[in-house]
Write a structure and sequence with these properties.
This protein has about 100 residues and is an all-alpha fold. It is about 50% helix and about 0% strand. The mean pLDDT is about 75.
Length: about 100
């Protein structure tokens, strides 16, 4: 008698795993941090990660995943609201111009 769950017990091959979803490139992470005008050390502390983790994201050696990816998505969507929520110099924020990425 064969084991009906044999295929589940075996590790996934590369072909069966699929490709990882790349939501934020290293440039995306740098641009999100730039919206805050924060240093790497400040931004890492702000989002609760190790500064080396942030550096790895910005150099493209690693990618954000899980809760960090969700937080980056929220920050990217509305950095002004998140700045206020995180108490990050919210009084210094100005509305971003419509063409701020066209430079």
């Amino acid at each position: 008698m064969t084991d009906p769950l044999a295929h589940v017990k075996q590790p996934l091959s590369r072909a069966r795993r699929g490709k990882a979803k790349v939501e934020f490139s290293s440039l995306d992470v740098r641009l999100i941090r730039a919206k805050f005008g924060a240093t790497q050390e400040e931004f890492a502390a702000l989002v609760g990660i190790n500064v080396e983790t942030l550096r790895n994201w910005e150099k493209g050696r690693r990618r954000p995943h899980g809760p960090a990816r969700a937080l980056l998505r929220a920050i990217d969507a509305d950095p002004f609201v998140l700045a206020r929520v995180l108490n990050w110099h919210a009084e210094e924020f100005r509305e971003e111009p419509d063409d701020w990425l066209d430079e």
